[in-house]
Protein backbone atom coordinates (compact mmCIF):
# COMPACT_ATOMS: atom_id res chain seq x y z
CA UNK A 1 0.00 0.00 0.00
CA UNK A 2 1.38 3.38 -0.94
CA UNK A 3 0.78 6.34 1.34
CA UNK A 4 -1.29 9.29 0.19
CA UNK A 5 1.21 11.83 -1.07
CA UNK A 6 -1.27 14.63 -1.01
CA UNK A 7 -3.96 16.24 1.07
CA UNK A 8 -6.88 18.17 -0.41
CA UNK A 9 -8.09 21.19 1.56
CA UNK A 10 -10.90 23.54 0.59
CA UNK A 11 -9.83 27.14 0.11
CA UNK A 12 -11.97 28.55 2.93
CA UNK A 13 -10.73 25.98 5.46
CA UNK A 14 -7.11 26.53 4.47
CA UNK A 15 -7.56 30.28 4.99
CA UNK A 16 -9.30 29.73 8.35
CA UNK A 17 -6.49 27.54 9.66
CA UNK A 18 -3.88 30.12 8.75
CA UNK A 19 -5.97 32.96 10.20
CA UNK A 20 -6.29 31.03 13.48
CA UNK A 21 -2.51 30.92 13.79
CA UNK A 22 -2.29 34.67 13.25
CA UNK A 23 -4.98 35.33 15.87
CA UNK A 24 -3.31 33.34 18.63
CA UNK A 25 0.20 34.60 17.88
CA UNK A 26 2.60 34.61 19.74
CA UNK A 27 0.95 31.49 21.18
CA UNK A 28 0.21 28.33 19.24
CA UNK A 29 -3.23 27.58 17.91
CA UNK A 30 -4.54 24.08 17.47
CA UNK A 31 -7.57 22.31 16.13
CA UNK A 32 -8.95 19.30 14.32
CA UNK A 33 -9.34 18.75 10.58
CA UNK A 34 -12.62 17.21 9.45
CA UNK A 35 -13.04 15.56 6.10
CA UNK A 36 -13.82 12.59 3.92
CA UNK A 37 -11.48 9.79 2.88
CA UNK A 38 -12.01 8.86 -0.76
CA UNK A 39 -9.76 6.75 -2.99
CA UNK A 40 -6.92 6.93 -0.49
CA UNK A 41 -6.94 10.72 -0.18
CA UNK A 42 -8.35 12.95 2.54
CA UNK A 43 -10.36 15.98 1.54
CA UNK A 44 -10.50 18.41 4.46
CA UNK A 45 -13.86 20.18 4.43
CA UNK A 46 -13.90 21.82 7.84
CA UNK A 47 -11.65 22.73 10.73
CA UNK A 48 -12.64 22.92 14.38
CA UNK A 49 -10.77 25.23 16.69
CA UNK A 50 -9.71 23.71 19.96
CA UNK A 51 -8.67 25.38 23.16
CA UNK A 52 -4.99 25.04 23.90
CA UNK A 53 -5.01 23.19 27.23
CA UNK A 54 -1.30 23.58 27.80
CA UNK A 55 -0.96 26.55 30.09
CA UNK A 56 2.66 25.93 31.03
CA UNK A 57 4.15 27.05 27.73
CA UNK A 58 1.44 27.70 25.17
CA UNK A 59 3.92 29.23 22.76
CA UNK A 60 5.59 25.94 21.93
CA UNK A 61 3.24 23.20 23.12
CA UNK A 62 -0.25 22.27 22.12
CA UNK A 63 -2.80 19.75 23.17
CA UNK A 64 -6.48 19.04 22.64
CA UNK A 65 -8.29 17.78 25.73
CA UNK A 66 -9.57 14.19 25.26
CA UNK A 67 -13.11 15.19 26.23
CA UNK A 68 -13.05 17.98 23.67
CA UNK A 69 -11.79 15.57 21.03
CA UNK A 70 -14.61 13.11 21.71
CA UNK A 71 -17.11 15.93 21.31
CA UNK A 72 -15.50 17.08 18.05
CA UNK A 73 -15.55 13.54 16.68
CA UNK A 74 -19.20 12.97 17.61
CA UNK A 75 -20.30 16.20 15.95
CA UNK A 76 -18.26 15.40 12.85
CA UNK A 77 -19.86 11.96 12.50
CA UNK A 78 -23.26 13.62 12.73
CA UNK A 79 -22.33 15.59 9.61
CA UNK A 80 -20.93 12.61 7.75
CA UNK A 81 -17.33 13.68 8.34
CA UNK A 82 -14.40 12.04 10.09
CA UNK A 83 -11.35 13.43 11.83
CA UNK A 84 -8.85 13.79 8.99
CA UNK A 85 -6.11 15.09 11.20
CA UNK A 86 -4.99 18.00 13.31
CA UNK A 87 -3.39 21.38 12.85
CA UNK A 88 -1.33 23.72 14.94
CA UNK A 89 0.93 26.70 14.44
CA UNK A 90 4.61 27.31 15.04
CA UNK A 91 5.07 30.96 16.07
CA UNK A 92 8.40 32.21 14.68
CA UNK A 93 9.48 28.65 14.01
CA UNK A 94 9.66 26.61 10.77
CA UNK A 95 6.68 24.56 9.61
CA UNK A 96 8.45 21.30 10.47
CA UNK A 97 7.39 18.78 13.09
CA UNK A 98 9.21 18.68 16.39
CA UNK A 99 10.11 15.60 18.46
CA UNK A 100 7.20 16.53 20.76
CA UNK A 101 4.81 16.75 17.80
CA UNK A 102 5.88 13.27 16.74
CA UNK A 103 5.64 11.80 20.25
CA UNK A 104 2.12 13.20 20.69
CA UNK A 105 0.87 12.07 17.25
CA UNK A 106 -1.19 8.88 17.55
CA UNK A 107 -3.72 9.01 14.74
CA UNK A 108 -2.11 6.82 12.08
CA UNK A 109 -3.37 7.61 8.60
CA UNK A 110 -4.25 11.16 9.61
CA UNK A 111 -2.71 14.45 8.54
CA UNK A 112 -0.79 16.77 10.85
CA UNK A 113 -0.71 20.27 9.45
CA UNK A 114 1.72 22.89 10.71
CA UNK A 115 1.68 26.59 9.83
CA UNK A 116 4.67 28.76 10.54
CA UNK A 117 3.59 32.19 11.78
CA UNK A 118 6.37 34.71 11.34
CA UNK A 119 5.97 37.93 13.33
CA UNK A 120 2.21 37.50 13.33
CA UNK A 121 1.79 36.60 9.66
CA UNK A 122 1.04 33.07 8.46
CA UNK A 123 3.93 31.84 6.29
CA UNK A 124 4.55 28.28 5.11
CA UNK A 125 1.98 25.57 5.81
CA UNK A 126 3.11 21.96 5.60
CA UNK A 127 1.23 18.72 6.13
CA UNK A 128 2.64 15.44 7.37
CA UNK A 129 0.89 12.11 7.10
CA UNK A 130 1.35 9.88 10.13
CA UNK A 131 2.26 6.70 8.26
CA UNK A 132 2.91 3.22 9.57
CA UNK A 133 0.75 0.70 11.38
CA UNK A 134 1.59 0.99 15.08
CA UNK A 135 3.19 3.34 17.60
CA UNK A 136 6.44 1.39 17.01
CA UNK A 137 6.77 1.93 13.27
CA UNK A 138 4.90 5.21 12.88
CA UNK A 139 6.61 7.97 10.94
CA UNK A 140 5.80 11.36 9.43
CA UNK A 141 5.76 11.66 5.64
CA UNK A 142 5.40 15.10 4.12
CA UNK A 143 2.41 15.36 1.82
CA UNK A 144 1.57 18.02 -0.74
CA UNK A 145 -1.34 20.29 0.18
CA UNK A 146 -3.70 20.92 -2.71
CA UNK A 147 -6.10 23.77 -2.14
CA UNK A 148 -9.38 23.11 -3.92
CA UNK A 149 -12.32 25.44 -4.48
CA UNK A 150 -15.01 23.04 -3.38
CA UNK A 151 -15.20 19.63 -1.77
CA UNK A 152 -16.91 17.85 -4.65
CA UNK A 153 -14.63 16.66 -7.45
ZN1 LIG B 1 4.56 21.64 16.68
List keywords for this structure.
seven-stranded mixed beta barrel; 153 residues; 3 helices; alpha/beta; 7 strands
Secondary-structure content class:
alpha/beta
Mean pLDDT: 90
Radius of gyration: 14 Å
- How far apart the termini lie comes to 23 Å
Strand arrangement in the largest pleated sheet = 1-3-2-4-5-6-7
Fraction of residues in helices?
Answer: 10-25%
pLDDT under 50 segments (min length 5)? none
Shape descriptor? globular
Bound molecules: zinc ion
* Main sheet characteristics: 7 strands, mixed, barrel
Number of strands: 7
* SSE succession: EHEEHEHEEE
Oligomer: single chain
The number of distinct helices, counting runs of at least 4 residues, comes to 3
Strand content: 35-45%
In words, what does this structure look like?
The protein is an alpha/beta fold and 153 residues long. It is built from three helices and seven strands, in the order E-H-E-E-H-E-H-E-E-E. The protein has helices at residues 11-24, 66-78, 99-103, and strands at residues 6-10, 30-38, 41-50, 82-91, 111-118, 121-131, 139-148. The protein has a seven-stranded mixed β-barrel. The mean pLDDT is 90. Bound molecules: zinc ion. Residues 88, 90, 98, 101, 114 line the site of zinc ion (ZN).
